[in-house]
Amino acid sequence: MEWTIDSTVELLNGERMPRLGLGVWRAEDGRETEGAVTAALRAGYRLVDTASIYKNEQSVGRAIRASDVPRDNVFVTTKVWNNQQGYDETIKAFNDSLSKLGMDYVDLYLVHWPIVGKYKETYRAIEALYDQGLVRSIGVSNFLIHHLEDLMGACRIKPMVNQVEMHPLHTQKKLFAFCRKEGIQLQSWRPLMQGQLDLPLLMELAAKYGKTPAQIVLRWHLQIGVVTIPKSVHEARIRENADLFDFRLEPEDVVRIDALNENRRFGADPDNINF
């Protein structure tokens, strides 16, 4: 096939980001997170996505250092949490994250949620970190079109990534089209819909291609041009989630999966967050 597990997309600044990564949301600090990251690196993953609020950055860093994969070959993402936002607060939060990771830089630093009255100053701090070479790429998470338009009217450096909830039941078509027009790479979290994969179409396609419903959904993400970070702490599932590169969905099947959209979120609405 045209891609392998270490295939990448090019971001606005020319940096390369793997198409598939491991998310560690809700993975417990210590053995669980370290085991998941270790299994992922052994399986060929080269992107690990964490955040300060996950409280497992130290374990992510330890697992990467203990692996035989050079640091420069692993794309590490972390994020500034909502109560850390603001210019000075973001600089401090980043330094804390960098210390916990035990690294000299991160590959991608994101504003975790669009906190009104805060996210512009937060992003301005992230731009400063980028200028210093402490962050190789910068972006946002959970930003809708109006948040992006507002931010781009004030920032110096356009966000390179927007990480949002996206899956067959919430395809985010308007946001996806906007980001594509602006050159912003869309990345999906919770791509597997909290395991709700027993939809008749996904079961049909799994049988057709000899794959699991999860593999069908993840392959759909890749084929439409979305970077995805399925979360798992189980080695067998981590390997299964990466077994996507020996088949290709036919165009009509991609369209059928698109049509499953219900604008259904499993996570919070970015316009109505209270955390």
Automatic annotation (TrEMBL):
Residues 19-262 form the NADP-dependent oxidoreductase domain. The lineage of its organism: Bacteria, Bacillati, Bacillota, Bacilli, Bacillales. Belongs to the aldo/keto reductase family. Keywords: NADP, Oxidoreductase. Signal peptide: none annotated. InterPro entries: AKR, Aldo/ket_reductase_CS, NAD(P)_OxRdtase_dom_sf, NADP_OxRdtase_dom. It comes from Cohnella soli. This is Aldo/keto reductase. It comes from the Bacteria. The keyword S-adenosyl-L-methionine does not apply.
